[in-house]
Amino acid sequence: MSEDGARRTLPRRDWLLLPLVAVVTAALFLIIVEGGSRLVWPESKDEVCAYNPLRPKPNCVSRDKAAEGPWVEARFNECGYRGTGSCGAVNAGTARLAVLGSSTSWGYLVPFDDVWSMQAAREITAKCGRPIDVQSLGGFGDLSLIAARTPEALALHPQLVALVVAPFDLFKLPDGGFNPAHALIPRPDPPTVHPGLMEWAKNFMTDSRAVEIAQHYIFGNPDTYVATYLHYGDRAAFLRPPMSEAWQERLDVLDEAVGYITARLAPTGTPLLLVYAPPLVQADLLADVKPAPGVDPEAIDRAIAQIAKRHGALFADGGDGFRSVRNASNYFYRAEGHLNSAGQTLLGRTAANVILADAPSGFCPGPAQ
C-alpha cells in the first residue's frame, strides 16, 4: 500500500482523539505527581491568625508548616504578639526585649523557642543571670507600617528594641515613600482580579508542590543556586556594588525608618538593635562559594551597618554567622526562602554576641562575663 493510502486509512476523528489522549495523559500524570507531592510534603502557610498586616489576632493559635519543615504551633498573646508570655508588666528582675519587623523577626514557620530572639535571650540570661521576656510585634507590613508600631513597642517598657530586616523586606517600597502616619490609615481591600490563562499557569507553577520539592534539592547545590540567582536582575543587585539606583532608594527608606525609630526611643534612653538577616544566596557566598566577578556578598551588610552607626543603633550582622559554616542551605527553607530553626539559632547567637559586647544595663547589670 502506498504512503498516501496508509495515511487515508486513519479516520478523521483520530486526528482529534490522538492529541486529546496525549493531553489527557499528560494532565493525569501532572495530577498524580502533584497530588503525590502534596501528600508526601504537606504544607499549610495560610497563617489564619494573621488576619491583617498590622498584627496577628489576639489570643489566637495556628498550626503552620513549610513543605520543607515540621508542623509548627504559633501562639499569640492578648496583644497579638508572639511572646514569652503575657504582654503585661513583667516580674521584678526581668528585662524585656521588644521586636519589630516582618516575618523573619517573629519566626514565621519556626517554633517560638527556636526563634532568634528566644535564642539570644537564653544566651544573655546564661551569661548575665537575668531573665529576658520577649515580645515580638512582627507582622507582614512594609517599613512604614513597622516603624509606625514604635510607640506600641515603647508602651511595653522594654530595655531593648530590635528591628530585623532582610533584603526581601526592602524589595517593595512603601507606597508614597516612607510615611508611618499614612501606614496606619485603613485601606479598602483591592478589587478581585480574575487571572488570565498565562497568569493562571504562572500561579500554578509558583504554587506547585512538585516544583517546590525540585527546588529544595536543586537549591541545595550552592554553585547552581548562586549562578541562577545572579541572573535575577534587580533582586540580585544588592550583591553588586556600587548599589543600583533602586537599591539605594530602598536603603534610603531603611535609613528613614531607623532614624524615625531611634528618635522616638531616644527620650526613654532605650537602645535600638538593628539585626540583618541574610538570604540563602548571600549565605552561600559567605560560606563556601567562590564569589563571581563583580559580586560582593558583604556590600549590603556594610551599607546597613553605616545606617545603624549613623543613628546610634547597635548592629548585628547575621552574615557573620555563615562565615564558619558549611552547607549554608541547611539553615534555610530552601525553596520557601525563610530561615529555618537552625538559621534562626545562628542569627540569635550573632545578636546575643553584639548585645553582650555592648549590653544595655537593663540586660546585664554589670560587665558581661
CATH architecture: 3-Layer(aba) Sandwich
- Overall mean confidence score, pLDDT: 86
How many helices does DSSP assign?
15
Helix proportion range: 40-55%
Overall shape:
globular
Number of strands: 8
Largest sheet: 6 strands, mixed
Overall number of structural domains: 1
* The first-level CATH class name: Alpha Beta
CATH homologous superfamily placement: SGNH hydrolase
**Remind me, CATH topology?**
Rossmann fold
Helix-strand pattern, N to C? HHEEEEHHEHHEHHHHHHEHHEH
Distance between the termini: 95 Å
Structural class: alpha/beta
β content, as a range? 5-15%
What is the radius of gyration computed over CA atoms, rounded to a whole number of angstroms?
A: 24 Å
> Which stretches are poorly predicted, pLDDT < 50 over at least 5 residues?
none
Strand order of the largest sheet: 3-5-4-6-7-8
Structure description:
The chain is α/β, with parallel strands linked by helices. The protein has one domain: 3-Layer(aba) Sandwich (Rossmann fold). 43% of the residues lie in helices and 11% in strands. It has a six-stranded mixed sheet, with helices on both faces. Strands 1-2 form a two-stranded antiparallel ribbon. Helix 11 packs across helix 13 and helix 12 runs parallel beside helix 14. The chain is globular, with a radius of gyration of 24 Å. The N and C termini lie far apart (95 Å). The relative contact order is 0.13. The mean pLDDT is 86.
